[in-house]
Amino acid sequence: MPCLTQDPNLAEKPDFTSGAYDAVCQALTMAEGSTREAVAACLSDAWDVDNNIKIAAWEQQLREDQEEEDEATCLREAAEQLESEEHRKADEAERKEKEKKKPKLKDLAMNKAVRDTTQLCPSRFTLHKLEDCDYVELHYFTLEGCTEATKHNRTIAQDTFTFTKADDTLLLKLMASHKPSNKVTPDEELTWRQMSIAKTTLLHHMGRTGWPKQHIMALAECYLNLESHPMRLQTDGDTILLHYQAQVHQEWHEVIQSTGDEPAFDISLINNRCVDAITTDLWNARCAEGVLRSVPFCFL
């Protein structure tokens, strides 16, 4: 049966006894040999049977429509639930990712006061060099160098990257951990006070960045021996020893990072022959400078 568009329960039965059906009833009366009233009754019964069939079909159609609607509702709710679950999982994954990136803060110790002294903190570039056991100038550990690093860290974004090259590969590194200072004072040009402050800060951060204790102790003893060296009692003695430590410190780093089998020298032992050679070089340079200053310029 074709799909019904109207509810047959609302259909109104025709009046087969009315004049509108006279022609039909007359024809059926003559064909059946029956009375007008009997034909009208038969037509009424036939209409009832047909309408009851339509009613049954209508009810079946309503049930099927309801089943389809229920199925569509279930599918829609299942899709919405699946989408909601996917959103929940995505939100949970995002939350966990943020938790991973979120800095871990230590618990507070109530009533614990701030430290009496503040340890100087060099730049990220300096600490990065220390972690790689590379040579880094003492300037970065002086009061001036650490102050500059503090100002620099406040002005540069901590997630700013720059390009660097390793072998033949171009890499991205944090700018704060890769950009050297353009205000570095060579080790030999530092004052004795600057060197003294810097070596203390250097030794502290060598320990924090995982340097072997043997190496830290050897370098610490080197500076201790320089502090008590008799050359300091001589004229320009501090300058000579500053040149000595600048030269030896850099050579020591080169040796401990070399790939050869020979062990590195003990930097704690002061080589007085080297000190004497540096003294001679500085004296000769000063004498040469004095001679040049004493010779007047000649203009042709």
Brief characterization of the structure:
Helix content is 58%, strand content 4%.
Q: Which descriptors apply to this entry?
A:
4% strand, 300 residues, 3 domains, mainly alpha
Count of helix runs: 8
Largest sheet: 2 strands, antiparallel
Backbone CA Rg:
50 Å
Oligomerization: single chain
Head-to-tail CA distance between termini: 125 Å
Strand order of the largest sheet: 1-2
What's the number of extended β-strand segments?
Answer: 2
Instruction: Bin the helical content.
Output: 55-70%
Structural account:
- The chain has 300 residues and is mostly helical.
- It folds into 3 domains: 8-98; 118-185, no CATH class; 212-293.
- The chain is 58% helix and 4% strand.
- It has 8 helices and 2 strands, in the order H-H-H-H-E-E-H-H-H-H.
- The chain has helices spanning 22-32, 36-101, 124-131, 143-155, 192-208, 213-227, 237-256, 272-294; strands spanning 161-166, 169-174.
- Strands 1-2 form a two-stranded antiparallel sheet.
- A hairpin with a 2-residue loop joins strand 1 and strand 2 (169-174).
- The longest helix has 66 residues, at 36-101.
